[in-house]
Amino acid sequence: MTRMATETWFLLTYKVPTDPPRRRVALWRKLKSMGAVYLQNGVCLLPKTDEHLRALKILENEIAAMAGEAVLLESVPLDPGQTDKVIARFRADRDEEYREFLGRCADFEAEIAKETADQHFTYAELEENDEDLKKLRTWLEKIRRLDFYGATLAGEAATRLSGCEVLLDTYAHQVFAAQDENRGSPDDL
Question: For residues 177 and 67, what is the distance between their CA atoms, to the nearest angstrom?
């Protein structure tokens, strides 16, 4: 992924009351779901985009409503080394999510292998596995939206999802064949 000559980020620092803790956790979750990286507690960065600005301004108001304090700044690195450090943090966070995704792909593959070994070729099982594949697709798309700087495991995750799709297609053909076989031929009637 190509980089601009000078990266610019939004830097949000905030302090919110400790009680009730659910508010603090909800705020943390919102920021993480946007792809923010935390430099330390209450200090996070997001790439400078209009979408992030809107979301951060809304969060700034939510923090004020919690009787908290927030400061939202534009931030540029002092040198390329600082840029590299920040981008490495973004990539590391996404790679952690990609690793978890790859683990779920392995679970999906194991489930298809088990059903195939048991010759459990039913429409109900196919439907369940199809739903699982849809969840994997949605999850990968969510990670990709937050992968601002091209994490190292992005390609592996895409390849693994494609493998899961092929695996499900193969399983589906086995289900169709087994169900046709179970119906018998018209001569059997």
Answer: 63
What backbone torsions phi and psi does residue 77 show, to the nearest 5 degrees?
-75, 155
If phi > 0 it is left, if psi is from -120 to 50 it is alpha, else beta; for residue 45 that is beta
Phi and psi, residue 14, nearest 5°: -150, 155
Total-model pTM? 0.86
| Contact predicate 67/58, CB 8 Å | no
Across the strands, what pairs with 70? 14
C-beta of residue 134 within 8 angstroms of C-beta of residue 78: no
Q: Could you give the CA distance from residue 56 to residue 15 in angstroms, rounded to a whole number?
A: 14
* Token pair for 65: 């409503």
Query: Could you give the CA distance from residue 136 to residue 165 in angstroms, rounded to a whole number?
Result: 10
Number of alpha carbons in the 13 Å side-chain half-sphere of residue 11: 11
pLDDT digits (tens, 9 = 90+) for 47-99: 999 999 999 999 999 999 999 999 999 999 999 999 999 999 999 999 999 99
Instruction: List Cβ neighbours of 186 (8 Å cut-off, separation of 6 or more).
Output: none
**Other CB atoms within 10 Å distance of the CB of residue 121:** 20
CA dist 70 and 30 (Å) reads: 15
